[in-house]
Amino acid sequence: MSLSRSTSADALTVPEASASNAPPASDSTSAKPPKSRQSVHLYRLKKWALSPRPLLVLTGFALFFSVWLLAVDVFQFWRFRYMPGLGEVVQEWTAREPQYGISLFTSEYYSHIWVSTRRVLIAFTFALGLGVPLGLIMGWYVKFKEFTFPVFETLRPIPILAWVPLAILMFRSEEGPVIYLTFLSAFFATTLNALLGVQSIDRDLVRAAYCLGSSRADVFRHVVIPGAMPYVFIGLQIAMGVSWFSLVAGEMIAGRFGLGYLVNTAYTTARYPTIVIAMFTLGFIGWLTSALIRMVGNRLMQYRARVLSTG
Hints:
The chain has 311 residues and is an all-alpha fold. The protein is built from 14 helices and no strands. The chain has helices at 2-21, 25-31, 37-50, 53-74, 86-93, 107-140, 142-155, 164-170, 175-199, 203-211, 216-253, 259-268, 272-300, 302-310.
């Protein structure tokens, strides 16, 4: 009897000892850093700044501009003898009164940028609205894919320049042919990647959804569409890049304004620094738009990172 009493007394004293050794609840909660959105962004920015990536980016650009300077201005290699030099382009780009009429301080420069950006956004919106649903349906419904995919694969390899005469015949306006040519490239990229996204889904997930009583429409909405999103956003990034390629080709041939038109007219009038200015502008805006799509995709697919981290 006394043994049981002593045992129960010891059992009662054990939680007291563990409670006395445990830190107070208030101290543990107060030690946690605030998890506000601003602090998270600042932490990520600080982590990126302390990583080797900024130095590598600056080194890459420094090497590129150094090779340009040496090949054109210093050694004047015969392949680069007639190209505009780095100093000439920078001076023209930053001049308040540029010699060839285009710089950071002229309104015409921003007019070309706005027209090209507007055309790309319109074409990309149509490609997003038509290509993604078409690719998802082609990947999910086999019979629909059997009679649409051969036609799609026949049209997809046709170069954009081959579509120019038909685009001019179909759209008797200045904007129509350029937007249509830009749309075609983006449409093929978004459709194909959405199709591949559906085909990459694990079929065990589909079978599990059917076993739980889901209908075909529910599986398509809750399994197929979320599972294909990584491929869809990769396709959107590719589509944005090829949109700028096609835009320049369309503006050179059928356009009356825009950065591609600026490149063509600068070449015909021997304004070579203006060509380089328009090229770098196209590259920067194309990189910026692709980065925005990538940022939106990472934000919308944060659930995948949580799933992968939890195993």
